[in-house]
Amino acid sequence: MNQYDVAIIGSGPGGYVAAIRCAQLGMKTAIIEKYATLGGTCLNVGCIPSKALLDSSHHYEDAVKHFEEHGIEIPGEVKVNLEQMIARKQGVVDQTTKGIEFLMSKNKIDVYHGIGSFKDATHINIAKEDGEETIEAKNIIIATGSKPSSLPFIDIDKERVITSTEALKLKEVPKHLIVIGGGVIGLELGQVYKRLGADVTVVEFMDRIIPGMDGALSKELTKVMKKQKVKFNLSHKVKSVERKGDEVIVKADDKKGKEVTLTGDYCLVSVGRKPYTDGLNAEAAGIKLDDRGRVEVNEHLQTNVSNIYAIGDVVKGVMLAHKAEEEGTMVAEILAGQKPHIDYNLIPGVVYTWPEVAAVGKTEEQLKEEGVEYKSGQFPMRALGRARASMDIDGFVKILADKNTDEVLGVHMIGARCADLIAEGVTAMEFRASAEDISRMSHAHPTFAEAVKEAALAATDDRALHV
């Protein structure tokens, strides 16, 4: 029986990063993955493939709508080759997952392909295609991630009523895609197919899209996506989804209780994700799960069984790849006797629509609810020379700062490249910067990042320079 210092169940961003860090710190490490490829949801059917399709569809939309204005003329009709687009996406995925294989080999991490389940607190059974194997580990990290949620009355047939996994490999562009859920996944994939020619209707239970983010971002993204001809049915409670042949009929009640019927050829169910612990046999190790199926952990991500830890989507908190990575690193360093920490307030959130949406820290709604006195500074992207040069003028940057100390409490932005720009906000808040600190930093001109400086100026003393 092979013995290890640490074994990790699941090879997503949390699991494989934990494995690498454990190996770097001198531990004999194993990782167990039930699928043929490493990387988990994020690399195989999540973050990476969705961004590949978002980029491809963005290029197509630019060619159809904007090239001519840039002085680029294309003879003949610009057409979508969906098969090639999906193939390119898969190529990106394959290249990325092979990169993880290389990193496992480089760091001398043993990889097992099969379903890992607890025999007891120090032994893991691995059900492989060619039989079963058991390994022993002093410490075990659960990194089994999450899977798409649904509603109890929806039958997901993976053909017409689909999840994000199937939406990444459709063989045709839908005529009318109905998206149930106005969160990150639904909006991103909805925008992909809208660009490629589908009619898209988003049905959301709450009164706004991206409900967990600052209200100003929700309002601006709704406005921009409506300009892009995406339809929104907000404050609608879906009550039935029925497939009839190649049609899908969705019925929902609006906020007044009136029934609304939508008919499309595809329905994407994107109502969130739920922790994945199926087949783990957690009870054999005595591990406690909470009422939502998550593994219960303390502030050190340790379960009630002292040598077993859990990270990422399978524990409480936001379901984000980079949060899982930070947790994987943290557990590895705890096992090595170090004292790492994570400030969960500084885990940024991003929506990869175009314009991109990104945020870190407290929203305006949260500050009001907590009774914190704050000031706000906002600057529009359209006032930037760089934005006008690239024709990406939608959006703004908003900085929230403490009214008395000027410490930055939240940074919220929507616009081109905000997924990258938000790192400036995270850095500033990590070092407890004030709005004035940011406003006095030199930002290259012309860049989108100048909007961060200008928003800081607006928050400092209402003295933005270019509005």
Automatic annotation (TrEMBL):
Q: Which organism is it from?
A: Flagellimonas okinawensis
> Which InterPro entries does the annotation name?
Class-I_Pyr_Nuc-Dis_Oxidored (IPR050151), FAD/NAD-bd_sf (IPR036188), FAD/NAD-binding_dom (IPR023753), FAD/NAD-linked_Rdtase_dimer_sf (IPR016156), Lipoamide_DH (IPR006258), Pyr_nuc-diS_OxRdtase (IPR001100), Pyr_nucl-diS_OxRdtase_dimer (IPR004099), Pyr_OxRdtase_I_AS (IPR012999)
Q: Which reaction does it catalyse?
A: N(6)-[(R)-dihydrolipoyl]-L-lysyl-[protein] + NAD(+) = N(6)-[(R)-lipoyl]-L-lysyl-[protein] + NADH + H(+)
- Name the gene behind this protein: lpdA
- Protein name, as recorded: Dihydrolipoyl dehydrogenase
Q: What is its EC number?
A: 1.8.1.4
The cross-references to Gene3D superfamilies, in alphabetical order and at most eight, read: 3.30.390.30, FAD/NAD(P)-binding domain
Q: Which family does it belong to?
A: Belongs to the class-I pyridine nucleotide-disulfide oxidoreductase family.
Q: Which free-text remark accompanies the cofactor?
A: Binds 1 FAD per subunit.
Q: Give the matching PROSITE patterns.
A: PYRIDINE_REDOX_1
Q: Tell whether Disulfide bond is among the UniProt keywords.
A: yes
Q: Which UniProt keywords apply?
A: Disulfide bond, FAD, Flavoprotein, NAD, Oxidoreductase, Redox-active center
List each copy of the Pyridine nucleotide-disulphide oxidoreductase dimerisation domain by range: 347-456
